[in-house]
Design goal:
mainly alpha
């Protein structure tokens, strides 16, 4: 039961890190044009 006092805050911190990484990726434009990047890889010389 005592381990819950450690695991619950650690999981909350992990969720905040994941949300921060997702927010950073969206802010940097990683998901703006996914289709064009897939075509660029196939059309490259």
């Amino acid at each position: 039961m005592d381990i819950l006092y450690l695991l619950i805050p650690l999981s909350v911190v992990l969720v905040f890190f994941i949300l921060a990484a997702l927010g950073w990726a969206i802010y940097r434009g990683q998901f703006d044009d996914v289709e064009r990047e897939g075509q660029r890889i196939l059309e490259q010389d």
